[in-house]
Amino acid sequence: ETGVTQSPTHLIKTRGQQVTLRCSSQSGHNTVSWYQQALGQGPQFIFQYYREEENGRGNFPPRFSGLQFPNYSSELNVNALELDDSALYLCASSLPGTSDTQYFGPGTRLTVL
Amino acid sequence: AQTVTQSQPEMSVQEAETVTLSCTYDTSESNYYLFWYKQPPSRQMILVIRQEAYKQQNATENRFSVNFQKAAKSFSLKISDSQLGDTAMYFCAFSQRASGGSNYKLTFGKGTLLTVNP
Fold first, then answer.
1. Pairing state of beta strands B10-14 and B112-117?
2. What does the pLDDT look like over B24-57, one tens digit per residue?
3. d(CA B67, nearest CA chain A) in Å
4. End-to-end alpha-carbon separation of chain B, Å?
């Protein structure tokens, strides 16, 4: 069984640019959630996707957006990057009916200069 | 707003000994789940143990067990026979339905860095 995968592993961008991060959910998992983990902090919930629609959002501005595809994979897009967007971005997936339990990918480390 | 508090930023333990990590949470929800996740230096967040709030029995997974005190809103993790591979950041997390959604989101504490010494 393949676990949650994310790409790229690392990314360096400059302020004002746009970035797209990608996530492939674990086999059979139809719900994908995205989290931002700043250095030395616990992850913070950005949003969740279910059946290709946003299904819950945390306290993040609209320049954070996402997509989910029919194969349940997902993208996180961030526009107009700011220095504070530098963080580890984690994707997590969960099984239908048990979305309380989430399994994480290895993350994408984003650095904004 | 739901919050999760881990009051121990760092802890250390000798190999083969037992250590307990503390976590408290605040919620007005009645139906929720609690988790401990482990994040080693490789940064992959690994699920350690899960507790359902409506179950009084404490969850156990091999060397890992919890002490769930619902009235006190306390959820501690006990690691028995500590191993060098247990060295990691440990996060306590609370799962609730996401605002505007029908599924669950996780709220994390700030973590406890556990070092197992040989």
1. parallel
2. 999 888 788 999 999 998 788 999 999 998 888 8
3. 19
4. 41
